[in-house]
Amino acid sequence: MAYYPAAWGFGRSFEGRLGADMGAFLRSFAPETDLLLAARDDDGALQGSVVLQGPRHNGDGSDDDAHLRWFIVADGQPGMGLGRALLRRATGFADAMGYPMCYLTTFPGLSAARHLYESAGFRLVATSTVDQWDGGVQEQRFERLRGGEP
């Protein structure tokens, strides 16, 4: 919540949605199907995080895809390998769990993150005019097949 409002002008609706989504995830967190990683420095300050939300059964016989969420690295960490390590752990977890596909949503302008996603096997599959963050950005969906296959 500190980065996106300052860097991209996202407002209260972004913070409200983020808080609600995180709260719902934490209420339903299942360590046997979900991954929550938080990297901290020696003083305990948060330096990065990533979540892989495993598929959820819809009750109609179908499963959702795994969802990579809340991947961020603190200022001063870019280029240090922390983001790559967090992403590798998340995609490794997805592969080990046998999830056939995972996806993430993002927006244009986050070039370093996009480079990481693509190097981990994610591919841009859709761009939408939907602005789910109320910051004047276009939503992009990236998908990665199990094992990072294109």
Average residue pLDDT? 83
Low-confidence stretches: 58-62
Radius of gyration: 15 Å
Oligomer: single chain
The number of helical runs is 4
Number of domains: 1
Q: Tell me the strand percentage band.
A: 25-35%
What summary fits the major beta sheet?
A: 6 strands, mixed
**CATH class, anyone?**
Alpha Beta
The N- and C-terminal alpha carbons lie at a distance of: 32 Å
CATH homologous superfamily (4th level) name:
Gcn5-related N-acetyltransferase (GNAT)
What is the general shape? globular
CATH domain topology: Aminopeptidase
**What class, by secondary structure content?**
alpha+beta
Keywords: Transferase
Protein name: GNAT family N-acetyltransferase
Domain N-acetyltransferase: 1-147
InterPro entries: Acyl_CoA_acyltransferase (IPR016181), GNAT_dom (IPR000182), NAT_camello-type (IPR050769)
Provide a concise account of the structure shown.
It is built from four helices and six strands; from the N terminus they run H-H-E-E-E-H-E-H-E-E. With 150 residues, the protein is of the alpha+beta class.
Walk me through what this model shows:
The longest helix has 17 residues. A six-stranded mixed β-sheet has the order 1-2-3-4-6-5, covered by helices on one side. It is of the alpha+beta class and 150 residues long. It starts with a helix and ends in a 5-residue tail after the last strand. A hairpin with a 5-residue loop joins strand 1 and strand 2. The chain has a single domain, classed as Gcn5-related N-acetyltransferase (GNAT) (Aminopeptidase), CATH 3.40.630. The radius of gyration is 15 Å and the shape is globular. It is 31% helix and 27% strand. The protein contains four helices and six strands. It comes from Roseospira navarrensis. One of its GO terms (molecular function) is N-acetyltransferase activity. Keywords: Transferase.
